[in-house]
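User: For a reading group we're discussing how well predicted structures match intuition. Take MBL fold metallo-hydrolase RNA specificity domain-containing protein. Before you show the prediction, I'll give you the sequence so everyone sees exactly what went in.
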Amino acid sequence: MAVVLADFLVREERGYYCRYGDFYIDALAPVETNVISHAHGDHATNGHGRMYATAATFAFMRNKYAKIPEISMLKQDFGFPFRLGEVELTLFPAGHILGSAQILMIFRGVRYLYTGDYKLQEDATCEPLQIVPAEVLITESTFADPATKHPDFREEILKLKDRPSNIMLGCYTLGKAQRLTALINQYLPEREVLVHHKMHPIHKLYELFGRTALRYSLYNRKAMKEGATNKIYLVPPLTFNSYFKAKNVLKAFASGWERLQKQNDIELYISDHVDWDDLLSFIAKVEPTEIWTIHGDGRALQKHFAQQMVVRDLLKAECFRHCS
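Assistant: Thanks. Here is the predicted 3D structure of MBL fold metallo-hydrolase RNA specificity domain-containing protein, as structure tokens, for the group to look at:
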């Protein structure tokens, strides 16, 4: 009978480390071998000897880190296994942003599934999440709270309809901005999308990978001030916060976090993470025997599954060093 190894993946200062394959996942500091789930800055960093990720993830990283050596980027297609040490790894779509991947690791007959960030909600701009059965589910727990339920994104985007003003819409540059553009194009075709100059190259990369056509223009002050008041200007968080005194626009910020809705003119709960119900639905389909939590608070999950299975935070490497 295959045995789950408690130290198969552990938390170190530099990232999540698998000693059985001698590699890291989503390392935050330079390491020799790093497997990257997706291109957001809290998961994808530069300076590693070898990196494994999808082509889209590397494209976004090259946009941010122009001098990444080509030889260090080992592109992996979804569904095709590769080996690191004694571990077989395969990337599967996570549905979070374009190119985002779950990482399935198989070692001595046990399947360990690292989700990275993921969502179940429909999103035309990225690959839909794929269900992958595993004995051990290593899941993000960003919104692992029974009180958290993300509303229907269609109803949320329609909050911007028939507003007698231009709208400044704060959002993250990679992933969220492109999803919002697609949603506005589909549900608010009368609205013109303007994007901040930092978002523009990411939109171009999304077009290059061809998931869906996006209609938008690069922001300029003249376009925002002249003509019909049907503009929605997408801006990154720092720009959004710096325009807190902006006049003649309505302000909204697209996020699952309640704290980011305060003092805005419109509340817009659109998240790229699973809420509590989607998390439970995902777990039921993966059918794990153990759950290890990362990126958030796993206590609600521990309580929910207390009589059914082991649920715990991913263990720190120090625990094994001191106890062995």
